[in-house]
């Protein structure tokens, strides 16, 4: 099974950096895809790659073996065009420690997902050296605002970052503060927020709420901070104003979701 790994443009082969992996496999007239966030530890021959969350999977039924072959070839070419590197070793699933794997702690939080608009285009225009500097300043600015508003960083994926907050108002204020801070770097971001339950086991977090936050962010336009109806309802007394952005289908998420833009 051909496997591909993308570590962010601003850091390459750095221990502990979280990135994304794709796996593509063809069997007869079907193509099997697996992808998701991964955590990279170590470098060179000693590098180990772990799935951060259970990977997403999809089966494409192409009808004929030749169509499946063409589909797999195109899928592999797309990965290479998006700065993925071939991954020779396995992608492991973290083993839970004895006695601690059976229990998962339930948590409730506001989840923030942020990423840069048109990052690939900007990286190509600036070149790797300059883009590395910009991304270093970008993550420093994001983490500074997270610290100020007591947000907890969960994972980074390329130019994206996912964090949690105990209070939805803190998450919204952090999102708008990040937006203004990174504009000084010539960057525009999109942000999505959702509130929900997830499960924690040690350093691992699992839950549909994280996927919903990412899908809400994907619906945001450049410079927008979008929230789910869950977040808006929790903030009815906050004084923060919202503008209705309609009802949307979120890819891979059940039902339709009402989204709102933070209006400042």
Automatic annotation (TrEMBL):
Coiled coil ranges: none
Ranges where the Guanylate cyclase domain occurs: 110-217
SUPFAM superfamilies reported in the protein's UniProt record: Nucleotide cyclase (SSF55073)
GO terms under biological process: cyclic nucleotide biosynthetic process; intracellular signal transduction
Name this protein carries in UniProt: Adenylate cyclase
Taxonomic lineage of the native organism: Bacteria, Pseudomonadati, Pseudomonadota, Alphaproteobacteria, Hyphomicrobiales
InterPro entries: A/G_cyclase (IPR001054), Adenylyl/Guanylyl_Cyclase_3/4 (IPR050697), Nucleotide_cyclase (IPR029787)
TM annotation in the entry: none
GO molecular function, one term: adenylate cyclase activity
PANTHER family: ADENYLATE CYCLASE, TERMINAL-DIFFERENTIATION SPECIFIC (PTHR43081:SF1), ADENYLATE CYCLASE, TERMINAL-DIFFERENTIATION SPECIFIC-RELATED (PTHR43081)
Organism name: Bradyrhizobium retamae
